[in-house]
Amino acid sequence: MAAVLELVAGSYEQVVCGYRVKTDDKEWTAEANFTHHAHTASISAVASSERFVVTGSKDETIQLYDLKKRVEHGALLHHDGTITCLEFYGSSHLLSGAEDGLICVWSTKKWECLKSIKAHKGHVTSLSVHPSGKLALSVGTDKTLRTWNLVNGRSAFIKNIKLNAHIVRWSPEGDRYVVVYDDKVDVYDTQTASVTGTMTNPKRISSVNFINNSVLAVAGDDETVRLCDIAKQEWVCEFKAHDTRVKAVDSFSWEDHTVLVTASNDGFIKMWKLQLKEELESPTLLGEVNTSARLTCLAVWKPTSVKNEETKDEATTSKEVVRELLRPKKVHIVEEVILEDESKPPKKKKKKQSNK
To answer: If you average pLDDT over residues 11-16, what whole number do you get?
Structure first.
């Protein structure tokens, strides 16, 4: 039996579309599964968890859609400005950023706002959660790169980068991250917080995605997707993905290869088979679907089993990095833990015995 995959895309037409992918054939097919029209302006961000699809818009709202029940699940109205970025941490928490300069941490259990952080003096343009869930990075129009301690919701580090970055992403192992501004990708070492290399794309960059810990897929304002080895600081592969500019790129591991997913202004979502070898070759097309919409953003919903295979080693490789980053601040972990695992029962506190 083929595994279930869902492609979720937002559009200028205010609609989010879901397509179920059949993977049992050599050529993958995507069939329309749902549409959700809850916004009154174009969709600017989309993210998916095991159960929910969330979309952000220029109408300043975050709309929730229950993917299992196929029904609307309400809206989050905390932000005052265009929603610029959304990211789940596991299935228990959602982080959102917007033009009001706020980063909000939401519990998906009751959809409560656990923490509202005034993150930037200008807009929040992008955020990324560390694989451990204890740190987050954000960039904004105040020309700063900020590191957040998600244990207590406070700023851990601020770096002036002199430019307005619009994308930030942790690597899968959390030992490096990339910051994107215009057509450039700066690669940072996590422990030193210093730039180890810079790659320049021919066009302004619209989306990036880590295929593994060293290979980064880069999409820009043209029809080409380029793969960069950030360890070697060189472009290793490129291919024409669409007829017009590529707006979003995502990826996931599948059997013995990687699947790249691209979305474009031309309305097409395409799936590509990529073999990760020492010398990368251009990927082959697995399947495509024409949404007939002007696409703006993309997310891939995968079953838990697929996600677990990709992330089972991340926690171990990230512990040392997080410990080093939090040590200089001498952070005392107080009772207010934001990204706690809600699936585990709370520990009972031991009663202190009084000395009589």
So the answer is: 94
